[in-house]
Amino acid sequence: MRRRILLFAVALLTAVGGFLAVQAPAQAAALTEVTGFGTNPSNLRMYVYVPDKLAAAPGLLVAIHYCTGTGPAMYSGTGYAQLADKYGFIVIYPSVTRSSQCFDVSSPQALKRDGGSDPVGIKSMIDYVRQRYPIDAKNIAATGISSGAMMTNVMLGDYPDVFSAGSAWAGVPFGCFATTNGSEWNSDCANGLITKTPQQWGDLVRNAYPGYTGARPRMQLWHGTLDDTLRYPNFGEEIKQWTNVHGLSQTPAVTDTPQANYTRTRYGSTGDHAPVEAISLAGYGHNLPVDAAATIHFLGLDTTTPTSPSSSPSSSTSVPPAGGACRVGYGVNAWNTGFTASVTVTNTGTTPINGWTLAFTLPSGQTVTSAWNATVTPAAGAVTARNVSYNGTIAAGASTTFGFQATHTGSTAAPAAFTLNGATCTT
Predict the structure, then answer these.
(1) Which residue in 107, 146, 164, 167 is the catalytic one?
(2) Domain 326-424, classified CATH 2.60.40.290, yes or no
(3) Are 220 and 168 in contact (CB under 8 A)?
(4) Residue 187 bears catalytic tag
(5) What is the pTM of this model?
(6) Entry's NCBIfam families (predicted)?
């Protein structure tokens, strides 16, 4: 079952031309990595997208990736940055560094407010941005896919006083994936075998922050009826949980069909910002057609207009602005069924780059088998090469080189384009 979620992530990354095929923003704003952002017990990486123009009181979205994903992959593969340009909100893209690249939604530490692990690191990212921008405290939201959807449930449970709303795409209820043996995977939950009463599910959320009596964030849930990775019964259990958290009936206030094969139920009210909204996608598996616009509409992030120029977040990290501050050289030495590639990344900007991620798409049939001077994941399709401990800094005018070995099925062509920390490079 764990292999299925990994295969899903690869399919998600390679779906160029599919539901996540979104071009990176064409403006000067770029994805920026921030280091030293605060308490970070699980060594997450933080990426932030600040549009060129912000709303007067901008909203804040935390966009959480799937297993084997990264923050930069979530940035380039979804439409949230473009919508941030349109409405003037800021987006944080947390990025896991553990080998599975799945978020911790299982440990006792993760399922308790300020208990440790990934939720604490993500909360530090939010605090970092709030200290530097006039964020609307009533408009902070989270969304995620698969593992990120599970973490969305966890963040809203751990920090109900921080978030106004969440949107979970193909996830499971808060606490469903809980383990006590250090495992990140809970097969019973993944297979939809864990059922509880609404009160029991609600108590799991309430026990994450004992004594809290304030408002609870609104929740939007999406799930495919044919999901064989995080099976469909989890959808009904999520509905039980969040309606109970809000003190609502299990009976929808309204049921409609926003488009073919979609059944939407709303609980607590009939409007677009109901306390709980659930969309069932008939005939869809785990690989859902994520609708970024529908997500931010429910989250309430599409109600503002950019009014003022923004500035980059203050940190020890510099990244190249979009359009020509980086150059990539790519050379291949090929044989019958394999090849080695040498990739040289040059910082053509005027400030150092501290921490780099190079994103590119391998042509069909090419599969990476090993790499040096960089960590390259996944093995095929849209991949990212990330610096290792000794070559993370590229001074202005300097270069670094990494390489990888790969197999091929006939084509050893170079990738068509490269982006460095979200900025397009010349080749």
Answers:
(1) 146
(2) yes
(3) yes
(4) no
(5) 0.71
(6) esterase_phb
